[in-house]
Amino acid sequence: xxxxxxxxxxxxxxxxxxxxxxxxxxxxxxxxxxxxxxxxxxxxxxxxxxxxxxxxxxxxxxxxxxxxxxxxxxxxxxxxxxxxxxxxxxxxxxxxxxxxxxxxxxxxxxxxxxxxxxxxxxxxxxxxxxxxxxxxxxxxxxxxxxxxxxxxxxxxxxxxxxxxxxxxxxxxxxxxxxxxxxxxxxxxxxxxxxxxxxxxxxxxxxxxxxxxxxxxxxxxxxxxxxxxxxxxx
Length: 233
Fold this sequence. Notes:
- By secondary structure, this protein is mainly β.
- The protein contains 1 helix and 13 strands, in the order αβββββββββββββ.
- Strands 1, 2, 3, 4, 5, 6, 7, 8, 9, 10, 11, 12 and 13 form a 13-stranded mixed sheet that branches.
- Strand 7 and strand 8 form a beta hairpin.
- The protein is globular, with a radius of gyration of 18 Å.
């Protein structure tokens, strides 16, 4: 196979993969959500679960069971994660630390694909948060210069956070203020509005894994063109 043919095949595969990005319908929260990390609010029962988290590079199935859900109201876009984990581990406990170097769940959101900016949120099992507003691919405002004032998040751990075996897992809730999503065509979003979103999980112990709802095909989370889509109901 010559180089030109190989390049064409790769481009076709990437185009096909992009065309198959997952889509999730975000329902309105029917009742209030208390952001405490417990995921026991009645509203979450109406949210369709996302259970397909795969290896971000290869797209292969993962043994780390992960579930996510999304809801919204006039003020917030809510995210919920449930991570089965026998070795929950994290050491960083300050806001805006480099949480991605340990175990973490992540949300990437681009409300207007015609613009280059997007938001990145990460929470670890110790309840530390990093919130980043990026002007372009990997070009963030300095971490400490943008902290969402009304952002809410919480975690609950069934076990310890020392990386030793014997744990069952951890859960996380995030409430992103819609007023922070400044490039969005409408805030609050209107039914039928479509935003790009990706959900990730970084696992370190006992074996490392980079998991994604919508795999990018590379060891790189910062690929908005490969994100999934959410559609507001």
